[in-house]
Design a protein that fits this description.
Strand content: 5-15%
Structural class: mainly alpha
Radius of gyration: 15 Å
Oligomer: single chain
Shape: globular
Helix content: 40-55%
CATH superfamily: Ribosomal protein L13
Low-confidence stretches: none
């Protein structure tokens, strides 16, 4: 699924009080030119200082969670509780193998010939692990 669409749906469900586990975070799609997206995330990573931040994650699951955090009122109690209900994973963890519910499938087929890159590829290019 596309990063922004997934994040907005997850943020809405989390604010409504649902617990959400996102698996295969490295397969989330970011639309746009590969070089431009890598450069955008590399620039976000280099902002600020090591002591004061802002701190931007390298791993795909943490990038996804930060994107979701940006879509909820995280400075208020309601938003903080919503963020605690969202868990993101790289791959499929042992406890969640049979409990999957798909929000949307076949996002790549609908993209057609548009340019895109996966969050896992972005993570590898900025120094993260997949």
């Amino acid at each position: 699924m596309i990063l922004g669409r997934l994040a907005s749906k997850v943020a809405k469900f989390a604010l409504e009080g649902e617990n959400i586990d996102i698996i295969n975070a490295e397969k989330v799609i970011v639309t746009g030119s590969k070089t431009q997206m890598i450069q955008k995330y590399r620039d976000m990573r280099q902002k600020g200082s090591k002591e004061r931040g802002p701190f931007f994650p390298k791993n795909a699951d943490r990038i996804l969670k930060r994107t979701i955090k940006g879509m909820v009122p995280h400075n208020k109690a309601r938003g903080r509780e919503a963020i605690k209900r969202v868990k993101t994973y790289i791959g499929v963890p042992d406890g969640l193998e049979g409990d999957t519910v798909r929000i949307e499938e076949a996002a790549i087929e609908r993209l057609g010939r548009k340019k895109y890159i996966t969050l896992g590829d972005i993570s590898l290019s900025i120094g993260g692990k997949v």
